Structure formats: structure tokens, C-alpha cells
Amino acid sequence: MNGLFPSLRQRTRWLAGLMGAVLLFGWINLSVGAEHLSPYQVWRALQAAGPSYANDLVEARLSRALLAIATGAALAVAGTLLQNLTRNPLSEPGLLGINAGAAASLVTAGLVLGSLPAGAFWLALPGALFVAVLVGVQSAYRQHDPSHLLLLGAALNAVLFAYVQAITLTHPALFANYRFWIVGSINGHTLDEAQRLLGWIAVGLGLSFILPRFLHVLQMGDGVTKALGLNAGCLRLAVLSGSALLAAISTATVGPIAFVGLAVPLLAKKIAGHYLYWQLAIALVMGPLMMILADLLARLLLSPSEIMTGILTALLGAPFLLVAVRINQRGV
């Protein structure tokens, strides 16, 4: 395979194979767990025509599957946009301070309210979006240095997480709620919540596919961008805002999920080459696949107990990242 410009047939085969894997493991995810169900039982439960216990079980697993698809796609696409924007293969949403902003917003809300109500993790969204806007506005004034985004994000990460630690260590009751969110988990959400999140992220993903045209212009250099009558700072702000919004919504809902926004874009670029739209398409499918696999393993490895999803994505993400590095070294 030509690593820079793989053929259309190669890209199509990869995309079709990944989509098939998502469907296969998504169905397996609905079938297996502490209590296994046959494919027929799952099909009947999806139609609400099975026994009540099977209907409830499949509904709970379906909400997790939808959350896995939504958050995996959002984080993978956000990471792909950021890596192309900063021209840095180590860029990912957490490095821009979005996770830290969400955490700071969450503990501040808990401090004001006295506790974190069940299902109130959307309280993390304002902080995540505030950090995203702050980084985006600052980037508009540093048009010649995309790496400034990462430096600013690192500084915000340090300051905000120091604030979070100061609050949680002095309020043990608040820390008890916060510690489950900070690890990252797609458990504990209703089907309605999952469907709402999927709807919002679907809108964000649709808008994100407009952004590669801006990235194509930016990659030609600020001089060319200015010659075309465009403002490089505004274009960077548009790309950053789109990626940050996707990351902020998913992080606020399920917590900071590690490695998806870093490892998946690297592999997507190796598969799709320099075709930005194909990178996004591959990431759009590979992100959900990684999250579905993580959720499946989280429920099976220590069954009937469960491992937090964020831990499994880190364990799965490390091999994904090593594979991408090996492919890069071999020049495939």
C-alpha cells in the first residue's frame, strides 16, 4: 500500500471491513454479558416482544452501545481534525485542556450545589466549552504557530487540574462522585440520554465534514491563505471549535476517555493516506469499534463485576498506538 495515496479500492475495502466489524461486535455486545442471550432473544427484545427481563437487559446494553458509538465517533473525528490542524500526531482533545475544563466545571457545580445529582454530568459541559472557546480565540492571534494550541492547552491542564485536586481533596463527599466520572464510563445512562447524545453528536459530525476544506487551505500556508482573501486565524478557530464541541459533549457525558482521540486518528491516517475526508470517514467508524470492544471487554473480563470503560480504552489504545507507530516506521 502507498502510505501517502492508497487506492480508492484499498480505502473502500478498509471502510467496508470496519463497518462490518462495528455491526458484528455491536450485535455481540447486545448478546453477551453476565447473562447471555441468543440472537433470536436479542431480536425479539429489540422489538419489545420478548420476556420483560430480556427487554430490560437489551435496552440497557443498547444504551451503552449507542453511547459507545456516539462518543467513539466524536472523539476520533475530533482527534483527526486536531492532528491535521496542529500538524502534530500527538494532538488529541485532552491536550487542549477540554477534559480539565469539564472536570473543573463539574466540581465547581458540585461545590455550589453541595453534591452532584444523579445524571447531572452535563454540568461538565460549560467548562469544557469555555476552555475550547478560550483556546480558539487565543489561536486566532497566533496564526503562524499551530503548536501554540498545545502549549496553551498544557498550561490550562496544569492550572485547572490543580484547582480540581484542591476542591476534591477538601470535600470527600464530592470526591466520591467525581472519581467515577474522571475514570470514564458509559454505564449508568438511560436509553433516552444515549439517543439525545447520539442526535447532538450526529449534528456535530455532519458539520465537521465541512471543515476539511478549511484544513486544505491552512495546510498551504498562511501566505496562500491570505492571498486567497481568507483569514487563517478565523479558519483555525472554526476547525478548533468544531473538534472541541464534539470532544466537550462526549467528555461531559461519559468522562474523559483516553487514547481514542489519539490512537484512532493515527491509524486512520495510515489507512486513508493524505485524503482528509477519507481520514474522517475511517475515524468515524474505527472510533466506535474501539469503544464497543472496550465496553464488551469491560463486562466480560471480570464478570459479573465490571471494569470502567476508560481503563479498557487505555489498555486497548496502547496496542492501537504501537501498531500505528510500527506502520509508520515501516513506511507502509
TrEMBL record:
Keywords: Cell membrane, Membrane, Transmembrane, Transmembrane helix, Transport. This is Iron ABC transporter permease. Signal peptide: none annotated. InterPro entries: ABC_BtuC-like, ABC_transptr_permease_BtuC. It is found in: Cell membrane. Pfam families: FecCD (PF01032). Belongs to the binding-protein-dependent transport system permease family. FecCD subfamily. It comes from Halomonas llamarensis. The chain crosses the membrane at residues 12-30, 62-82, 94-113, 119-137, 149-169, 237-264, 276-298, 310-327. CDD domains: TM_ABC_iron-siderophores_like. Its main location: membrane. It is a multi-pass membrane protein. Gene3D superfamilies: ABC transporter involved in vitamin B12 uptake, BtuC.
